[in-house]
Design a protein that fits this description.
This protein is of the alpha/beta class and 269 residues long. It contains ten helices and ten strands. Strands 1, 2, 3, 4, 5, 6, 7, 8, 9 and 10 form a ten-stranded mixed β-sheet that branches.
Length: 269
């Protein structure tokens, strides 16, 4: 049960932004959770599950409980996160906002200076640092091939002044194209299969280590951060104040932390 004072603040924010609860649903575009491949020998006729983003939907539900706002969600597996593709945001989760095809996208966009020029990011809902994961048995040696997913992490490694990150970047460049992973790939199977190290976001490390069952280790220290994760709205959107207020209240009352822990995304980095 939320305190009435919180609800009052949110309704005042809604009125100030000119948003009515009777208006059209807020158009949301989320990237769906990856779907695990099913063993056809075990489930030969099992249909694929409908796309969803469990953390994102839980977050929208919590925001709805606070504000009464109604969301209409579309899942787009064809869209990358927020890093430009060949210098353009076409094909990324920022494009629906830029093209007025959505009012809100996310739920885990990396907050970047180049993204802020074309959309408005909301207050952070999580943070992470970049860590190195490697094969426990083989260790980190001069023969280890470093890899990274083709996301904002790749851009950071290419532009940072962090000496260790620059060295990792040079190794990744030498190993192209195999050293650049698809944006949805976290690389744990590659680590288990050889002398491969993956640059990974710290909030996913718990899941990867659990998957590795002791065969994957984390290098000491980090390559950079903290970086911040959030959702985004159209540039100048009146929704920004309303949604920011709701997210801050969820952080203050502990609900946001509960959701992050529920979905194994909690990071104290």
């Amino acid at each position: 049960m939320f305190q009435s004072g919180v609800v009052t603040v949110l309704f005042v924010a809604l009125q100030a932004a000119g948003i009515t609860l009777a208006g059209a649903p807020i158009r949301v575009v989320f990237k769906p959770d990856p779907v695990e491949a099913l063993d056809p020998a075990v489930t030969p006729k099992a249909p694929p599950p409908p796309p969803t983003n469990e953390f994102g939907m839980d977050l929208l539900s919590a925001i709805h409980d606070l504000t009464g706002l109604v969301f209409q969600t579309t899942f787009r597996s064809d869209l990358a996160y927020g890093a430009p593709i060949n210098g353009s945001f076409t094909g990324t989760l920022l494009a629906p906002l830029i093209n007025n095809e959505a009012d809100l996208t996310g739920p885990e966009l990396v907050v970047t200076s180049y993204g802020e020029q074309v959309v408005d990011f909301l207050v952070p809902i999580n943070s992470f640092k970049l860590r190195i994961l490697y094969n426990t048995e083989l260790g980190l040696t001069d023969k280890t091939q470093y890899t990274v997913a083709n996301t904002e992490d790749l851009i950071y490694l290419n532009t940072t002044t962090n000496v260790d990150a620059q060295a990792v970047w040079q190794d990744i460049v030498a190993g192209k194209p195999d050293s650049i992973l698809p944006a949805d790939e976290t690389g744990e199977d590659m680590i288990l299969g050889g002398n491969i190290a993956v640059v990974a976001a710290s909030h996913y490390i718990g899941q990867i280590l659990e998957y590795g069952e002791g065969k994957i280790s984390v290098a000491t220290g980090d390559l950079g951060g903290p970086f911040f994760l959030s959702m985004a709205v159209q540039k100048g959107s009146s929704l920004r104040e309303v949604l920011n207020t709701a997210i801050l209240q969820l952080s203050e009352n502990g609900m946001l932390e509960q959701l992050l822990k529920k979905h194994e995304l909690w990071s104290q980095s």
